Amino acid sequence: MSKDYWLEGRSPYRVRYRWSGVFALIPFLTLLSLNLIKTTPSSHERILEIKRLKIDPLIIKPEEENLETHEVVIKKGDSLYTLLKPLGVDPALFPSIIKSSKPIYNLKNLIPGRTIRVTLKDKSLERIEYPIDDLTLMILEREGKGSFVAFKEELPIQKRLVLVKGEIRQSLYEDMTKLGIDPEIVMGLADIFAWEIDFSTDIRRGDTFRVLFEEGLVDGKVVKTGPIVAATIVNQGKRYTAFAFEAGGKRGYYDIEGRSLRKRFLKSPLHYRRITSYFTRRRYHPILKTYRPHHGVDYAAPAGTPVVATGDGRVVYAGWKGGYGKFVLIKHNGTYSTAYGHMSRIAKGIRRGRYVRQGQVIGYVGSTGLSTGPHLHYEFRVRGRPVNPLTYRFPPARPVPSRYRKDFEERKKALLALLMREEGVKVAVLEDRIGSF
Question: In this structure, what CATH number is given to the domain that contains residue 108?
Answer without folding.
Answer: 3.10.450.350
